[in-house]
Structure formats: C-alpha cells, structure tokens
Design a protein that fits this description.
Elements lengths: L2 E2 L41 H4 L4 E4 L7 E3 L9 E4 L8 E4 L5 E2 L4 E10 L2 E7 L8 E2 L2 E3 L6 H13 L3 E12 L4 E10 L10 E8 L11 H16 L5 E7 L11 E8 L1
Parallel strand pairs: 7-12, 11-14
Antiparallel strand pairs: 1-15, 2-3, 4-5, 5-6, 7-8, 7-10, 8-9, 8-13, 11-12, 14-15
Length: 262
C-alpha cells in the first residue's frame, strides 16, 4: 500500500517532497532536503536532436514538441485538435496520419555493495564528466528489469542480481519516466563501458552530490540514503516538476511536488 508523504515545506536541509497548498504549520523533524531543479536532460540527448523535423517546445503546444513533417511520408503537418480528442496533434496534410508523442522510459540500477553504491562518470554529453547511476533507455522487446540489467552491463561492465523496484520518477516536462531498481553485484568486478570514463563505489557520505549528472539521480540517491538511515527500504513514486529552459547539469532547480512511498 502506498501512502503519501507530506512535507510542510520547512526543512533545515531544504529538500521538499510535497508541499500542501494550504498548510503553514512548522515541521518539527524534517527528513528530506529541499530540491529545486531545472530541466532534466535526456540521458543520451537523442530526443533533443533526433530529427530536423522537430522544432523546440512552444507554449501553444504545451509540453508537446512541434512536429513539422510526417514521419511516415515526409509530408508537411498541420497542428490542430483531432475530432474526439483534447490535445493538439501534428496531422499530416498528405496521408492524414496523426503523430502521437509518448514518454520515454529510462531504466537503471542502484547497486549496493559493501555499504557503498556504484556510480559511473559520463563520457558523453549531456553532463559530460558528471556522475550517474548506470541507466538508459528501455529497448523494444525487453522488460524494465532486463533493460536495467543491460544498461548496467553496457555502462559499468557489471553483472547484477536480486533486482527489486526502488523508485519511479516521472518528469512530465521532458516526457521521461525513470524506473530504478535496487541490485547487488554478482561479483565485485566492474569497469567503464563505452559511455563511461570511470566507475567507482562510493560510501554514502562520499557520494559526489555536487557532481551528479541529473536531478533524477539526485532525488534517487537522497531517497536511498533516507531509507538506509531509517533501516527499511521502500518503493518511492514521485513527480519531478522541472523548470523550463535551464541547463541539464543544474540538478537542483526543480521541485519534487508529490511523493508516495510504500
């Protein structure tokens, strides 16, 4: 059963999980740090530059990218609300097909070993040279757990086992959902994959929070540390509200407005 965690917005360490709109009460024992974060970046930057036919976001289209040309026939598109629907869509003026944009699923592992966690330093943009959990896009034909195992092997040459769901973090502004699994190393061997320059086990007190690649990693690792301190792992769900138009490497310009934990 999931229960909502309500942080009243007063935290000495500053990370806000969910701030009620009406309450002004003081928090006596805040347990989470306050987050403010800016626009999360696609882990491999694919969605930002995958096609010349996709223009930048426009307020008239909400959080949907403006698609100028049909992905099937290449014809020009018009943007309107199709009959029976409520959202603006790109409709091909030649073949009539409607382009539906769907969120991307990012899967990865938070690997525990000897009271440490495994992080990878990115060797690609965005967030080159910053630390992240091994994670990436889920592929067609695989489950979320299979994708997390694959990404861990690709980025850290590490084999993992004992996967259990730890966190789902939705980032509506950029159309991403993160699913992170807790995992153990099958054997204490790992090394950088093609997209990583380093892989390292960090004690919880040594995690480089000022050098993390994405706010999703910042949230995940903070939640994990709180669970460790509480002595009980939980499953977390949250929505990261991003601030548009900011750098991917600015991991603190966001709010985690809503948080559920098991």
């Amino acid at each position: 059963m999931l229960r909502a965690i309500q942080n009243l917005g007063c935290s000495s360490s500053g990370w806000l999980l969910w701030k009620p709109r009406t309450s002004t009460s003081a928090c006596k024992t805040p347990s989470f740090r306050r987050f403010r974060a800016r626009s999360e970046s696609n882990p491999d930057a694919a969605s930002a530059s995958s096609s010349a036919s996709v223009a930048s976001q426009s307020s008239s289209f909400g959080n949907v990218r403006k698609i100028s040309f049909c992905q099937w026939c290449g014809g020009p598109t018009k943007h309107e609300i199709p009959s029976g629907e409520e959202k603006m869509r790109a409709i091909c003026t030649v073949c009539g097909k409607i382009a539906y944009q769907n969120p991307k699923m990012v899967v990865g592992c938070l690997i525990e070993h000897d009271n440490k966690v495994l992080l990878c330093k990115r060797k690609i943009q965005p967030s080159y040279g910053l630390w992240t959990l091994p994670a990436g896009y889920m592929e067609i034909g695989e489950s979320a757990a299979e994708g997390a195992i694959r990404e861990t092997w690709e980025e850290a040459n590490a084999e993992v086992e004992g996967l259990s769901p730890f966190a789902q973090l939705d980032i509506p502004l950029i159309g991403q959902t993160y699913i992170i699994f807790l995992a153990k190393l099958k054997k204490p061997q790992f090394s950088p994959g093609p997209e990583s320059s380093e892989c390292q086990l960090f004690a919880l007190n040594d995690i480089p929070f000022n050098s993390l690649a994405f706010s999703s990693m910042f949230v995940t690792l903070n939640l994990y540390i709180e669970d460790v301190k509480a002595g009980k792992p939980k499953f977390h769900y949250g929505t990261i509200k991003k601030r548009p138009g900011t750098s991917p490497s600015d991991i603190r310009a966001f709010t985690l407005d809503y948080h559920l934990q098991s």
